[in-house]
Amino acid sequence: MARRSAPEVNAGSMADIAFLLLIFFLVTTTIETDSGISRKLPEWQPEEQDPPIIKERNIFQVLVNANNQLLVEDEEMEIEELRQAAVEFLDNGGGTGDEACDFCQGAGDPDSSVNPTKAIISLVNNRGTEYGTYIAVQNELVAAYNQLRDREAQRLFGTSFTEMQARYDDSRTSEGAKETLKERIEVIKDMIPQKLSEAEPTS
Amino acid sequence: MSKFKKKKSEGQPAISTASLPDIVFMLLFFFMVVTVMRQNTLMVENKLPFADQTEKLDKKDLVMYIYAGKPSPRYQERFGREARIQLNDKFASVDEVQSFIFSERETKREELVPYLTTALKVDEETNMGLVSDIKQELRKAEALKINYTTKEGEALQNMQ
């Protein structure tokens, strides 16, 4: 018999197979970037140490009980008001002389903080507090710090603090730009340090 | 003249689908490259709380994950409904956290160890007691950089 050419393979079903695989990967894909609130834990200290003496006016006490209710500076408060209260406390600027705060815009209340560098927010929660509430409180307090830092960054450098941080973390930013960004971030962080102290939960 | 007339009467030619597989393959390769398979199978309920003041966790290889929450329905018979910790693929008790951190550190290059972050993926209904126990263990293990993994959204939604 004469030579027959090999029959061509029918590729019509290739699309079906590819579709099948495509749908599989479409379904399994989760494009997730984890994001969250970053914190730094204090170092472990084996012995009980005497707490440093801090003036009562420089402490902003936040208590959360097992029913997820807030007690801020001995007054009951809703979570919606927490951010504003924290900003007012940090931005009070009631100090004089060495402790004076030259950029604060607060009321200068003699019972509230003297300077953002001295102000400490103390957070105490109960063992029965729900994690969701705890995160909400943390979020509001971080937001209060960010709000002030943004304001100062805007005043000094014409850009917001959160944006500077985002650009600093961005790998596309050049090394030289990172240097100046880092310097500026440090300046803001020195002006308004995040002093958030967490005590052992009460039971 | 008759030649042209004949062609017109044939009607519209079918659209060629010969390039369809190419297009589909292109999409397929895209998704194959992008897909990250889940490292751990979740054995606990994990409804993360919302927050909007978040930072991104970039380097995935430098993150250690600790899950906590109520056991999923199919494990509830064996492990009860009390919130528990999950490390890798199994339930763990609080004192196993330290050894978990140490064994994770072993697998990383030495110069990267200071950059290791612990991501806490905790269900929003968990009590803080368990979370602070984990935090105490992390402090003892000197894994001080932590990140409370959250979903993007108004934090006030957590209170409802």
UniProtKB/TrEMBL annotation, chain A:
Localization of this protein: Cell membrane
One GO MF term: transmembrane transporter activity
Coiled-coil regions listed: 65-92
Recorded GO CC terms: plasma membrane
Alphabetized UniProt keyword annotations: Cell membrane, Coiled coil, Membrane, Protein transport, Transmembrane, Transmembrane helix, Transport
Superkingdom: Bacteria
Membrane-topology descriptor: Single-pass membrane protein; Single-pass type II membrane protein
GO BP, sorted A to Z: protein transport
Record InterPro entries: ExbD (IPR003400)
PANTHER family cross-referenced by the UniProt entry: BIOPOLYMER TRANSPORT PROTEIN EXBD-RELATED, EXBD MEMBRANE COMPONENT OF PMF-DRIVEN MACROMOLECULE IMPORT SYSTEM
Family, as annotated: Belongs to the ExbD/TolR family.
Protein name: Biopolymer transporter ExbD
TrEMBL record, chain B:
UniProt GO molecular function: transmembrane transporter activity
Keyword Transmembrane helix carried by entry: yes
Family membership: Belongs to the ExbD/TolR family.
Transmembrane segments: 20-37
Highest taxon in the source lineage: Bacteria
A Pfam family the protein falls into: ExbD
Protein name stated in the entry: Biopolymer transporter ExbD
Cell cycle among keywords: no
Topology with respect to the bilayer: Single-pass membrane protein; Single-pass type II membrane protein
Keywords: Cell membrane, Membrane, Protein transport, Transmembrane, Transmembrane helix, Transport
A Gene Ontology term for the protein's cellular component: plasma membrane
Compartments reported by the entry: Cell membrane
BP GO annotations: protein transport
UniProt main location, coarse: membrane
